UniProtKB/TrEMBL annotation:
Pathway: Carbohydrate metabolism; tricarboxylic acid cycle; isocitrate from oxaloacetate: step 2/2. Keywords: Iron, Iron-sulfur, Lyase, Metal-binding, Transit peptide, Tricarboxylic acid cycle. Residues 34-479 form the Aconitase/3-isopropylmalate dehydratase large subunit alpha/beta/alpha domain. NCBIfam families: aconitase_mito, PRK07229.1. It holds the Pfam family Aconitase_C. It is an enzyme of class 4 (lyase). Its EC number is 4.2.1.3. PROSITE patterns: ACONITASE_1 (PS00450), ACONITASE_2 (PS01244). GO terms for biological process: tricarboxylic acid cycle. GO terms for cellular component: cytosol. PANTHER family: ACONITATE HYDRATASE B (PTHR43160), ACONITATE HYDRATASE, MITOCHONDRIAL (PTHR43160:SF3). This is Aconitate hydratase A.
Amino acid sequence: MAFDIDMIKGVYSQMAERVDKAREITGKPMTLAEKILYSHLWDGSPTTAFKRGKDYVDFAPDRVACQDATAQMALLQFMQAGKAKVAVPTTVHCDHLIQAKIGADKDLQNAINQSSEVFNFLESVSNKYGIGFWKPGAGIIHQVVLENYAFPGGMMIGTDSHTVNAGGLGMVAIGVGGADAVDVMAGMAWELKFPKLIGVKLTGKLSGWSAPKDVILKVAEILTVKGGTGAIIEYFGEGATSMSCTGKGTICNMGAEVGATTSTFGYDESMARYLKSTGRADVAEAADAIKDYLTGDDEVYANPEDYFDQVIEINLDTLKPHLNGPFTPDLATVAGPEMTEKAKKNDWPMKVEWGLIGSCTNSSYEDLSRAASVAKQAVELGLKPKADFGINPGSEQVRYTAERDGLLDIFEQLGAKIFTNACGPCIGQWGRYEDPKNAPKNTIVHSFNRNFAKRADGNPNTHAFVASPELVAALAISGKLDFNPETDTLLNDDGQEVKLKEPTGFELPPKGFDVEDPGYQAPRADGSDVEVVVKEGSERLQLLDPFMPITKEDLQGMKLLIKAYGKCTTDHISMAGPWLRFRGHLDNIANNTLIGAVNAFNEKTNFVKNQLTGEYGPVPDTQRDYKAKGIKSIVVGDHNYGEGSSREHAAMQPRHLGVAAVLVKSFARIHETNLKKQGMLALTFANEADYDLIQEDDTFNFLDIDSFAPDTPLTIEVVHADGSKDTIKANHTYNNAQIGWFKEGSALNVIKRENAA
């Protein structure tokens, strides 16, 4: 039986009535995304037709999921909310704090030894507040959610940007910051601007070396890393229904890389098969009873241009295997000759040093079986891989089943390292180098979702390319970035030319899934006597002090901290990797604030001018000096600022250090929301060209902050070192409630006040 089956049946019991009412109000057929959104309104049955991309709407998500790195700050905030128990089903998954280095067993034990304080904290908080706890080694949050919690037609939020993976089972699943999660866990409405809708029509059927991964790599090329911002992507068509559920999950997972609010597919037979295979026949039966409400209406899919804001069509019959990268997930190249030409032109290293398979994106049984079919050919053909192999199974259930069926043994015959069921290299938890900053230029290929500089191994010279698991296997065996498995041959140990056949695999395990200990721990029925301990002087955990409101006086005489140039992701603002150990200690992790951002005035990282001393130094040190002198600062940025992970640390750290405003050309959705939640000003240039007016020694005065109101730009006086001034306009997307967060210091302060009333 499924977790929370009564909750799921409750959602289904009211879905038909609410969707029918929404159709009546809007006067049109509905997409799946709209059905889920309108059936999860905080106020219940729909009464209003919302404007896409305009109206802020309150929703009631069904559940919350947190991974261990973000859960620490989310739960530290929840502990301040004044609640005895979470209001909706919530889980914590320990998958980020395990470094991949030696192999699964030793790496897991090392993580437990090093992070026991954090794991114990998360376990005790989970017990106290009624939260399901998935122990270290149990698996990667999004694969575990897909196997256990996701359900068609549901709405969930999670404190990780790849929460969207659950769209593979027909959910609207959205990545958020911890403060948003606290709202829902505390039983309050969750606010979202009603998304625009992008329809992706898939015709034909995947075959040969092409995989679901290639669909999203192609979509990323079309939309770029910001083309999906503010939108839900909905996939449909014969190509969609022909895919497996986990293949759909892969596509939805990487929708985060185009900035989409989430992605989803309509309920179909592949989802029903997956639910039954993972022990949830009861969910499949309940979904079958209302299946017409769990997919878009026929009229929508027949005439998509009439119902979506944008429509993309991809013919899977002609889709070729892709590699995306380096340094950005939207730079797409077709495998083979196109890669040869592009790599030579850009001086990308052609030798592949590592092939990595796994992560929350591609770690299902199907993914491992297809990659193993390629590896098995190499063993049988006498091919020795030219690159190293690393495998991260997605869950203990997947690992146990794959080991039982001999898949892992095939990889081990090629010398692969089987890492823990955890994120590992995908989020920088990879002990590849002793000194990554001075490591050599090289190329790796992986089935992960992101490939920003230094993302996997901390080496700025690592060129990482994203591909399907089966293509990663082929490229690792060949050792060549431009190897084309469709046409190219390889020399085996006997000097014979051999050719790899098309990969094969299993949508689901032929013998069914099996596992001895999935790693789940249910919370105590009554956790009121559980004591949550945070040791005084701990370097890993720190109880939070409320943020004080930013005043009008604070916003006068502000100093420029940094003018960031080019791509500035949450990895640049708050790096992961070794810094993950401080995710529960705001002051300690603040020492990595913006150290990866490129200073527009000298094109260096972590090297900015202190306007009080005239000296150059690290960004956090400079900001701490301003804070000590009682001076607030401003950060200026480029397009899609805050792209990438949902980590709210990228907002909380600058706030903690005294940054009061962030002024950029455009924001990534989650980061903009995180800044608002922490009581900061998240602003965009009304005229993008004004970015060029900002000089290194500038001081900023907010002239009309007293008139802060929705749909009204703010006026900023920029005073240059020579005494000259420029007056610029800054737009914002704050509504009245969000302005209230700013005035009270943070959204959490508002929650505490309301719960105390």
